[in-house]
């Protein structure tokens, strides 16, 4: 029985319809070794939006697909939260545009749904799920469901080191009682600090200190692990079928996974075995200078990652969560939720039975905050996951030449007027089709 459970009842994914191949197209134009992207970052391609796509069309298209598939009508939805860091309006939330789109194709309306837009870099999708969980658990939902949408066009300035990690896509998730995919646990761990490693002060493209952003990510994840531990959660690596992380690029997760593992085995039999095998983890107090300590830590981490238990754990719980990210890049607010879809889809394909198994979910947003909680996979998960059409969508993307990529980047630049014809022909989807008299963006549904 799962009567108390609140969590994700269904999800749908919408990828930007264009593809930038990093090895074949981007690397030669940058005169870079393709292995820097495919092996170093762990990325093969970016999904990018066609000219008629933006955060609203992608979010509305994902939501449309989800509501139709689940047979949910507008009056069953009590709140719509859009999580994004690519908003184009400082007052009117993207959720109102998305609802307007959906009202073009559904009977009824979302007049009584509470709508909002959540911002905290990449972590706001998880915060929106949190809000939905609390709303239902507080008894305020009157039997209605929450629609949470993550949607971003993650463009960087041309020639910024982050350019190779770009991506665009949306994920719509239905949060309800007795969910079919996962139920959220109540324990949470947070790590949060005022940081300036990645931010967009009134600008479209981020100001980024890339190297520091990775250190800040790891520091906040470590703090969130400690906080979750203090809350009494079981963090042992063997207690979880999957461990999802915010995935700006898979290489980042490789570094975070070691932290999660190391923390989880501390004080356990596996941890004692690890000390016997590779010695204790170096402590900063044992070194005269920081460089010597960091060198010792790197050597220790390298040895840990080569132990059979770690290798088996990584292949089982981490590697399956990275499959989709490798082909789409960073979807910012959607990235950790794409990791959930990827991990569950890979598990279903491998014939694993995850019903009632636990997962750990580690979200992160620059600026900076990490949150980690556990989820329990629900008995209907594999049927739900089999309905994702993401592999077909990825295969159908238009493969850009480098010149076409440059033109698309310009076309989406808010500071330029660069009219461009679309590369794909819209069918059964919402499109951006112009501007209204108040400067608002307008949308139409193309049959
Ligand atoms: P970079 O200068 O392009 O790359 O910046 P690099 O030289 O540091 O190389 C990257 C990796 O590839 C390294 O691996 C290299 O060794 C390896 P590592 O040492 O780290 O394990 N490499 C190669 N491997 C094989 N063959 C080769 C080769 N060459 C190099 N030939 C950077 C990388 C991540 C800094 C850049 O992409 C960037 O600035 N990205 C944007 C910021 C970012 O993604 N930060 C991640 C943490 S913050 C975060 O996740 C939040 C975020 O999602 C935003 C939000 O919350 O809103 C970004």
Essential attributes:
9-stranded mixed beta sheet, 3-stranded mixed beta sheet, single chain, 447 residues, binds 3-hydroxy-3-methylglutaryl-coenzyme A, 15 helices, Peroxisomal Thiolase, Chain A, domain 1, 23% strand, alpha/beta
Concise overview:
By secondary structure, the chain is α/β, with parallel strands linked by helices.
Number of strands: 16
| Biggest sheet statistics | 9 strands, mixed
In round numbers, the mean pLDDT is 96
* CATH fold-type name: Peroxisomal Thiolase, Chain A, domain 1
Number of helices: 15
Radius of gyration: 22 Å
Sum up the overall morphology in one term: globular
The portion of residues forming beta strands comes to: 15-25%
Structural class: alpha/beta
Q: What is the CATH C-level name?
A: Alpha Beta
Tally of distinct domains: 1
Bound molecules: 3-hydroxy-3-methylglutaryl-coenzyme A
* Helix percentage: 25-40%
- How are the strands of the largest sheet arranged? 5-4-6-7-1-8-13-12-11
Could you tell me how far the N terminus lies from the C terminus, measured between alpha carbons in angstroms?
42 Å
CATH superfamily: Thiolase/Chalcone synthase
Low-confidence stretches: none
* CATH architecture annotation name: 3-Layer(aba) Sandwich
């Amino acid at each position: 029985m799962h009567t108390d459970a609140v969590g994700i009842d269904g999800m749908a994914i919408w990828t930007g319809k264009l593809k930038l191949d990093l090895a074949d197209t981007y690397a030669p134009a940058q005169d870079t070794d393709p292995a820097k992207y495919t092996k170093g970052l762990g990325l093969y391609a970016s999904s990018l939006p066609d000219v008629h796509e933006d955060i609203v069309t992608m979010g509305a298209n994902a939501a449309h697909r989800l509501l139709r598939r689940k047979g949910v009508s507008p009056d069953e939805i009590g709140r719509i939260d859009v999580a994004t860091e690519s908003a184009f309006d400082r007052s009117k939330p993207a959720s109102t545009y998305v609802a307007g789109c959906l009202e073009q194709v559904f009977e009824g309306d979302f007049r009584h749904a509470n709508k909002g837009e959540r911002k905290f870099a990449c972590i706001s999708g998880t915060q929106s799920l949190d809000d939905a969980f609390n709303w239902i658990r507080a008894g305020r939902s009157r039997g209605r469901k929450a629609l949470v949408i993550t949607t971003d066009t993650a463009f960087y300035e041309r020639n910024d080191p982050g350019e190779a990690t770009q991506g665009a896509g949306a994920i719509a998730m239905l949060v309800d009682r007795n969910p079919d995919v996962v139920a959220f646990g109540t324990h949470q761990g947070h790590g949060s600090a005022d940081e300036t490693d990645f931010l967009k002060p009134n600008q479209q493209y981020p100001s980024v200190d890339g190297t520091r952003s990775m250190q800040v990510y790891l520091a906040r994840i470590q703090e969130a692990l400690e906080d979750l531990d203090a809350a009494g959660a079981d963090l042992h690596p063997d207690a979880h079928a999957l461990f999802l992380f915010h995935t700006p690029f898979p290489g980042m997760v490789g570094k975070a996974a070691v932290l999660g593992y190391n923390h989880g085995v501390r004080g356990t039999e596996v941890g004692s075995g690890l000390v016997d095998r590779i010695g204790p983890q170096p402590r900063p107090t044992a070194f005269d200078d920081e460089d010597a300590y960091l060198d010792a830590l790197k050597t220790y981490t390298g040895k840990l990652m080569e132990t059979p238990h770690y290798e088996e754990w990584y292949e089982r719980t981490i590697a399956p969560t990275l499959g989709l990210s490798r082909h789409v890049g960073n979807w910012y607010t959607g990235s950790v939720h794409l990791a959930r879809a990827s991990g569950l889809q890979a598990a279903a394909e491998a014939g694993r039975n995850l019903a009632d198994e636990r997962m750990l979910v580690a979200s992160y947003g620059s600026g900076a905050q990490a949150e980690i909680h556990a989820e329990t996979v629900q008995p209907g998960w594999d049927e739900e996951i089999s309905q994702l059409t993401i592999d077909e969508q990825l295969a159908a993307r238009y493969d850009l030449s480098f010149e076409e990529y440059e033109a698309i980047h310009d076309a989406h630049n808010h500071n330029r007027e660069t009219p461009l014809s679309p590369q794909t022909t819209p069918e059964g989807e919402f499109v951006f089709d112009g501007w209204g008299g108040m400067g608002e963006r307008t949308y139409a549904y193309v049959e």
